[in-house]
Structures are given as C-alpha cells and as structure tokens.
Write a structure and sequence with these properties.
This protein has helices at 2-19, 54-59, 359-362, and strands at 27-42, 84-99, 104-114, 137-147, 155-166, 172-185, 188-198, 208-219, 222-233, 252-267, 270-285, 294-308, 312-321, 347-348, 403-415, 418-429, 452-466, 469-480, 486-487, 494-495, 501-510. By secondary structure, it is mostly beta strands. The protein has a single domain (37-510), classed as Beta Barrel (Porin), CATH 2.40.160. It has an 18-stranded antiparallel beta barrel. Strands 19-20 form a two-stranded antiparallel ribbon. β8 and β9 (222-233) form a beta hairpin.
C-alpha cells in the first residue's frame, strides 16, 4: 500500500506539471508577527507544549509540579501550589511567499520562541537566553500551493509541511507533512486530507497515516459542513520518537476516527456557530494479544450565539464534552493498565483529540480553564488528564474532555481604539468515579466524584495603539469548586487550592 501510494503521487505530479508551462513573474512577499507576553498568576500553569509532554505543559517546569506543600508530601512533589508565578515570553513568526500568479506559490515560515525572558541554555524555544546567539529558529511550514490545470473544475493542491486541521477550536490543528486539496463544485467545497505523522521502517507497514475528508456547502446565509479524519496508527502508538530495528515488534497500535458536523451563519441579527464531534476507535497490544483492547468513544458539542451591534456585542456559549469512567479508564489509556484497583483499563469515554492537536489552545474560551487569545494558560494536572501517552504523541482530552460549561459574554467598543470584554462561565466536571482536574479521595482512598470545577470571570481589554500594533490585557479569576480539590501526597487527606487567578498581557505587532 505504501509503495502504491508513493508511485501514484509521483506519477500524478509528473502528469500535472508536464501538461502546462507558464512564464510568470515572481512576486516575493513577507509577513508575520512579533509578540511579547507577560504572566502574573497563581495556581495556573503555563499552557504551551514546548517542553514536550502534556505533564510538563501543565506543571510548568522548572518550577515543579502543582501539588499541595503539606505534611506527607515530599519536597520533590511540592511546587507552585498556592504560590504566585511571574514571567515574560516572546514569540515571532516570519513567513515568506514566492508567488507566481494565482496558480502557483511556495511558502516558507519560521518561528522563534522564548519560553522565558532569561531562558536557560539550549536551542529550541530558548531565544531569551542572556547574551542571545541561540540556534532558536524553528521551521514551521514549507509547502507548495498550485492550481491543477487538467481538472475541469477549480482545484488547488498544497504539498509539504503545512497546517493540517479541521475545526481547530473543537478537534484538530497541527503542523505536519501532508497533501491537502480543495475542489470547488459550487456551492460545495471538497477538501481531501492526507498526512504522515510517522514513517517507521521503510520496508514495513508500521507507519502512522492520517486520512480525512472535509466537505462544506454554503446554503443561503449558513455554511454547513462535515468531516471525517482517520488516524491509522499501525504499530506507531504512541507515536515513537525513534524507529525500532527490524524484527522488533511495536508494543501498541491504534485506529481512531473523528467524525464531525457543524454550521456557521447568521440568522437575523444573531451569529450562530454549532459543532458536534464524535471520536471512536481502539488501542490494542501487539505484544500481548491476551490483553483486552481499550475502546474509545467520546463526544463533544458546542453552541455559540453572538449578537453584534454598532458598539456592543453580547451572547452565550454552551459546551459539553464527555468524561471518562475511572473504573474503566487508566490515565494512560493503554491495554492492561489499572486506574482503580482491581479495575483494568478497557474503555475511554472521555472526548479526546488527535495526537499533536493544539485544540486546547485554539478554543479561546477563557483565561484560566480553557485557552485565551492572550495566552494558552490552563489549570494544572489532576488525576485524569489524558487517556493517551502524552502530548503530543498520544491522544489527550484536550481543552474540553471531561468538562462542560455555560458562558455569557459582552463586549463594548468604547472608542475606535479601545474595546472591553466581560465573560462569565460556570464550569462542571463530567468524569465519573473521579474528577477531571482534581484528584481528591474518599476516606477509603477511592477517588471522590465532584461536579463543580468552578465559576470563572474574565475581563479582557483590547487596545489598538496603531493599526498593526495591539495590546491586550486580560484578568481572570476562578472561584474553585470541589472538583479542583487535591490529594495530599499518598495520604487519604485532601486540600482545597486557593482560587486560581491570572493577569496576562500580549503586545503584538502584525506585518
């Protein structure tokens, strides 16, 4: 199958480029952004996965894990719990487009990061190192866009390292090697997707392939769409960091689907966004067939209504994402693993997102529990964080899995250069026989099941200093509910954290 696909792709490209030759003028363009971000916060963790695993992105190294600093807890476990953190970050993107008419272009985009002003030594994400001179330039995208001349309907293709995703705030957004297309048959747009997450051994069918189809149609004032994305992780789950030797059997494989429907449009004065998505599939052991497969089946739903007016907008959002049953689900989501003795992992009912997806940052629903447009902050790790092997190599619950919320918001544009936004959320827990973010236990040592994560209130100020220079200032507080209580070490006692809060700013220049 692998050889057939490679030969077919090669033949297709030869056919396409041999049919028509154009003499065109090259138009070279540059664009990008630079942004400086500040954090002042308590009981909130830095939410960007630059450290490589989902655990560290919630625990925010090098400051230690988020655990109660109480009797019975070792010094290595106590960290930023109930303490105030402050730090600065920087990020830049530089994009180059080589355009030869509307039929052909090539794109190269670089990213430069500083996880902290005053970074430690190293390269990736360490641009803030004192004395500078870091090899901190990262390749973000490298792809070719071209129109297909031999197809009777408008069709474009993109080949290379590119953004790959569908409905980023709900399901998938990442960068990876792939081929995507857009076929326009009015009023329908058909977008096939192929991605290669891991190659494995060249002479073995042990790679990780992504296949997808996204279809969208404009029906009056409403855009209706649907998609299906398949991650065929054939011996590559969690996605390995190296290629094993021939004869070495991978431990696990997985086959997962994400199926979604959505609608965006305007009904009268109301802007509506509706999303529903289902994940389904399984993870199984290749080395121990006696272990029961772990079945995955979760779903999420989101509805947003916004009423924009001259200087005011207001509306509400409702989101529900299924949670796991901790009597059936281990935090690793792997066959043979146990969460609550004597139960073995056999089913993951939490809504999960694909490996590598940054949905947790793209949803932009709040300042603390979910991602925001200022910073990808999030609450720290709890008992049931991810039914996968770690971000980004396994499936995770993303920003939504195991939670639900009801949100109201309003914005007021006081002047042409200043807008203020206020939002309030009630956030609940949908995990069964345990909690999504907290890990409180009963007197017996069994996980406690609570329903309220808390009430979150955010105030976000948007200041346009110049047309291309914007300063956002966000303030958020979460009045913590019982579902955030934390177990004290290995004891059967719990502690309630102080209410998480954050003050964050982003100064962004776009060019």
């Amino acid at each position: 199958m692998k050889k057939f696909f490679v030969i077919s792709l090669t033949g297709l490209l030869i056919m396409l480029f041999s049919t028509v030759v154009f003499a065109q003028k090259l138009d070279f363009r540059a664009s990008g952004f630079l942004e400086a971000i500040s954090h002042l916060q308590s009981n909130v963790a830095y939410g960007d996965p630059l450290y490589g695993t989902i655990f560290s992105r919630w625990a925010a190294p090098p400051f230690g894990s988020w655990r109660p600093d109480k009797p019975g807890v070792s010094a290595s476990d106590s960290g930023q719990y109930d303490r105030t953190d402050s730090f600065l970050q920087y990020r830049g993107n530089l994009k180059f487009d080589a355009v030869m008419g509307k039929e052909l272009s090539g794109t190269i985009m670089f990213e430069l990061d500083s996880t902290r002003w005053g970074d430690t030594s190293g390269d990736r994400g360490k641009m803030g190192y004192w004395t500078a001179d870091r090899a901190a330039v990262e390749i973000k995208n490298v792809y070719i866009d071209f129109g297909v001349p031999v197809i009777p309907v408008p069709m474009t293709m993109r080949v290379g390292l590119q953004p790959i995703g569908v409905r980023p705030h709900m399901t998938m957004i990442t960068d990876g090697m792939g081929i995507t297309a857009g076929i326009k048959v009015d009023p329908v747009l058909i977008a096939p997707i192929y991605g290669k997450a891991w190659e494995g051994k060249d002479a073995s069918a042990d790679d990780v392939d992504i296949y997808g189809l996204h279809v969208n149609a404009k029906v009056g004032p409403v855009s209706i769409g649907g998609y299906g994305v398949n991650f065929n992780m054939n011996g590559g789950y969690p996605i390995p960091s190296s290629v094993p030797a021939y004869g070495v059997r991978p431990s696990y494989d997985a086959n997962m689907w994400w199926l979604g429907l959505y609608a965006d449009g305007k009904l009268g004065p109301v802007l509506l966004n509706l999303d529903a998505v289902l994940d389904t599939g399984e993870v199984n052991s290749r080395t121990n067939p006696a272990l029961k497969d772990v079945d995955y089946r979760g779903w999420a739903f989101r509805a947003k209504a916004n009423v924009p007016m001259d200087k005011i907008n207001f509306g509400g959002t409702f989101m529900y994402a299924t949670g796991a049953d901790l009597k059936k689900t281990n935090a690793s989501g792997m066959p043979g693993s146990a969460q609550i003795s004597p139960y073995l992992s056999k089913k993951v009912g939490s809504y999960v997102i694909p490996p590598g997806s940054e949905q947790w940052a793209a949803n932009q629903e709040s300042m603390i529990v979910y991602g925001s447009n200022i910073t990808a902050s999030a609450l720290p790790v709890g008992m049931f964080l991810h039914p996968g092997a770690g971000y980004p190599t396994g499936m995770t619950r993303g920003g939504f899995g195991g939670t639900w919320f009801a949100k109201v918001f309003a914005g007021f544009k006081a002047t042409p250069w200043y807008k203020v936004n206020l939002e309030a959320l009630y956030i609940g827990d949908t995990t069964k026989n345990g909690n999504t973010l907290g890990d409180a236990v009963k007197a017996t040592g069994q996980p406690r099941d609570d329903k309220t994560i808390g009430w979150e209130i955010n105030l976000i100020n948007e200041i346009n200093i110049y047309k291309n220079l914007k300063w956002d200032i966000g303030l958020g507080i979460l009045f913590a509910g019982d579902a955030l209580d934390q177990r004290i070490g290995s004891t059967f006692r719990n502690d309630s954290p102080k209410n998480p809060w954050i003050i964050a700013t982003k100064l962004k220049y776009t060019f």
